[in-house]
Design brief:
The chain is an alpha/beta fold. Helices cover 43% and strands 15% of the residues. It has 18 helices and 14 strands. Helix 2 crosses helix 4 and helix 14 packs across helix 15. The two termini are 46 Å apart.
């Protein structure tokens, strides 16, 4: 039995190193005992023997999954990850199997970690502890469900880089001083004194509280009660709930007449206009930010945001329209029928999907409920424009040599117009920053063609475009 003792800082990297070594030695999952919270120098409690095996390649999806799950609080998280890694050597498609219980459990854990990180960003409250120096000093206390203080530290350093601060949690304490992050052991809740900011938070909360839209259960779901004791504005919640009905009636009496339909449409479009906030500097940070996207109304009904996936240095970026029903549930692009057709035709054309970055112009699923089914709806121009910020952020990070735009929506987002896609397919155009764009059909179109002869012709055209993309990459990506 091999015992692996992981440190309680930089845990994800330590797990990757240990798992790589164990896999190279062909140590099975039931032959490893994982421990957490050891000193950094004691990674292997039982010394490893020199490895003789080769490396196992895994997808970016697994790497990102492991990075998140390592911060989960469940003691068995490392064993679960290694068991899945062991299977990936022989079952490369298991990550896309929606019915696999092990993958489903790890995805649930990943989602729980990201949700906890989001709650920390939303509900952590700083209090000023010293305003006499050149940099003001603040402190905060937070009680997360998982070990997220370390992976969340970079976010707070970016957001509050102009001040020194301490974030204390029972598990880990994060110090930020003069632009540098330092980690220390956790501690009990410190005696933080009230400051002027608490009154500001309460005033702000009272002003944004809308009694006409009060739903207590929904509010407690988004803002669980266990966070209230550390949020100064939470003291006002009982009073606001008690007076909500009277205030809502007062608002109704003072409400103006309804605006004309066109004015309402303009207001909605303005609310969908992307802001000029800077994009995160890594794909994982970008994906975490995208999980909270509210740039257009599509986030309200979709299960989750579906961002792109693939190598960071991919020479080819493949852009589709939007997630479908299966992608919306799985949280990954092109895993449904259209994606499976794309994979088959791409393989026939000599195009390796694993070497491309695959994404969509719109990141949330737009649909119309019909009984138990969700019927796809094409995103409109405003929704495409609102989501273009995320696509451009992905482009800036990937820096592809060539973009394959599949369908009219992708063409609109990348070139400014989606008109005449049937005549334009098979041709190269350019983005605003002069990146070449090869236009082609969307694989979902091929699935909808009713006539067998027309379907075969459309598949030939699509396969030819994929071959053209593969040949272009082979000639120009070196």
């Amino acid at each position: 039995m091999r015992t692996v003792a992981l440190p309680d800082t930089d845990t994800a990297a330590a797990w990757r190193d240990a798992a790589r070594e164990l896999l190279a030695e062909r140590i099975p999952p039931d032959g490893v005992l994982w421990q957490y919270g050891a000193a950094e120098s004691d990674l292997f409690a039982t010394a490893p023997t020199p490895s003789t095996g080769g490396r196992t390649r895994v997808s970016r999806a697994f790497v990102d999954l492991a990075e998140a799950v390592c911060w989960h609080a469940e003691p068995e998280r490392f064993a679960r990850l290694y068991a899945l890694l062991w299977r990936l050597a022989d079952e490369r498609s298991v990550m896309t199997d929606r019915g696999d219980a092990a993958v489903a459990k790890l995805r649930e854990m990943e989602k729980s970690v990201y949700r906890d990180m989001h709650k920390m960003k939303a509900f952590l409250r700083f209090r000023e502890i010293d305003a006499t120096g050149s940099r003001r000093r603040f402190a905060a206390w937070f009680e997360p469900q998982h070990h997220i203080a370390e992976p969340s530290a970079a976010f707070f350093a970016r957001r509050f880089g102009d001040m020194d601060w301490i974030i204390a949690t029972p598990d880990r304490t994060v110090h930020f001083k003069d632009g540098e992050i330092a980690l220390a052991p956790g501690q009990p809740r410190p005696p933080l004194l009230k400051d002027a900011t608490e009154q500001l938070w309460t005033t702000y909360f009272r002003n944004i509280f809308n009694p006409a839209r009060l739903k207590v259960k929904a509010m407690q779901s988004e803002m669980p009660r266990r966070y209230w004791k550390n949020m100064p504005e939470a003291a006002a919640i009982p009073d606001l709930i008690a007076g909500a009905e009277a205030r809502a009636r007062e608002m109704q009496r003072a409400a103006p007449t309804l605006a004309p339909a066109r004015a309402a449409k303009i207001t909605e479009q303005l609310s969908m206009t992307p802001t000029d906030t800077p994009a995160p500097g890594s794909l994982s940070a970008l994906h975490q930010e995208a999980a909270n996207c509210t740039r257009c109304p599509l986030h309200r009904n979709a299960t989750q945001v579906v961002v792109g996936e693939g190598p960071r240095d991919a020479p080819l970026m493949v852009v589709g329209e939007q997630p479908g029903d299966q992608e919306d549930l799985a949280g990954r692009p092109f895993v449904g029928p259209a994606g499976q057709l794309f994979d088959r035709l791409a393989e026939e054309a000599g195009l390796d999907r694993d070497k491309a970055f695959v994404t969509n112009a719109v990141k949330h699923f737009k649909f119309q409920p019909r009984g138990k089914r969700r019927i796809h709806q094409k995103p409109d121009a405003g929704e495409v424009q609102a989501c273009r910020w995320w696509l451009e952020a992905e482009r800036r990070l990937i820096k592809p040599k060539l973009i394959l735009a599949m369908g009219a929506t992708a063409a609109m987002s990348l070139t400014g117009t989606g008109a005449g896609i049937m005549k334009r397919r098979g041709t190269f155009e350019r983005t605003e920053d002069d990146t070449p764009v090869l236009l082609t059909l969307h694989p979902s179109y091929l699935l909808r063609v009713p006539n067998a002869a027309a379907k075969a012709a459309a598949e030939r055209d699509f396969r030819a475009d994929l071959t053209l993309a593969a040949d272009w990459i082979a000639r120009n990506a070196a």
